[in-house]
Structures are given as C-alpha cells and as structure tokens.
TrEMBL record:
It comes from the Eukaryota. Residues 135-162 are annotated as: Disordered. This is Myb/SANT-like domain-containing protein. Residues 12-99 form the Myb/SANT-like domain.
C-alpha cells in the first residue's frame, strides 16, 4: 500500500528533486522523461530518506506538476512590461489570480523563484518550452518533438514536449 503524497512538505519536494537529478545524471531518462527504472530507483531511495512509500504514478504526477510550474516560471520571466522585485515580477494580486487560474501552487512564485530551482533547471532544461522560439507552419518537425499546447491563462501558448 502506498502512502498519501504530501508535496506541501519542503523536505519531501527537495528529496524528490535531488533524486531526479541523481537519476538524470545516471542516464535514467529517455527524451526528457524518467524511465521506469529511474522511477523505481527514486521510489526506493525516497522511501529510505523519508520513510514514505510512493508509487510511480505519484512520482510521475509530481514530475509533471513541477514541469508545468517551471515552464510557467520561464514564461513569467520572459514577459515584458511587468515590474520586477525580489526575484520575481511585481504585479497586483488580480494579475496573479488570472494567470495562475487552476494552478494555486504557482501563486507562491509571487514571492520569488520556485523551491529547488537549480534542480528544476537540470530536470527540465531540454523539455520546458516557454514560447521564446518559433516554428514555421508547414516546416519540417522531427518525430518526438510534437507537444501539447497549453494556455497560461492569458492566451499565451506554451508547448510542453511529451
């Protein structure tokens, strides 16, 4: 039986991110995604560190949530016309509410960068797309680079390769 995932615990998040980086460096990713072996190793080491037993699905869900948050962080930092203060954008609460609709956990970025930013950069360096590059419609796109288009709440597209 698996324990309920408590990702509000800063130590659990840090342990997960550190283990992901360890597994990335060990070659346990394929096309930017953790392999089954990687998740199995993370689960064992996570249980050693925290005493919590989580499933591959729980870890994958957390990976995906962190990837979406990191992609939003990248997008956020590329926005022009927004004030800057304390390492993040300085805008009113209504702006944050509008742009984080459906993603309450992103609102903590109002106070600064995401926790474990160095690890997130390693985890998602080649798979988080922030819209700063472009593609010519009808141009050649190699297999494996198609993605899901998302919306950050203001109509700005963000593509995350799967």
């Amino acid at each position: 039986l698996f324990d309920k995932a408590d990702w509000s615990n800063i130590a659990n998040n840090a342990a997960f991110c550190e283990l992901c980086v360890e597994k990335i460096r060990a070659g346990n990713t394929n096309n930017g995604h953790m392999t089954n072996r990687g998740y199995t190793n993370i689960a064992a080491k996570f249980e050693e560190r925290t005493g919590l037993c989580h499933s591959k699905r729980q870890f994958k869900n957390k990976w995906d949530a962190l990837r979406r948050m990191y992609t939003f962080w990248l997008w956020l930092n590329k926005q022009s016309g927004l004030g800057r203060s304390g390492g993040t954008v300085a805008v009113d609460d209504s702006w944050w509410k509008k742009h984080t609709k459906g993603h309450v956990e992103w609102r903590k970025l109002h106070n600064g960068p995401p926790e474990n930013l160095a690890e997130l950069q390693i985890m998602f360096q080649n798979i988080a797309v922030d819209g700063s590059s472009s593609c010519i419609p009808g141009g050649h796109m190699s297999k494996g680079h198609e993605g899901d288009e998302g919306d950050l709440g203001d109509g700005s597209p963000v593509t995350i390769r799967k």
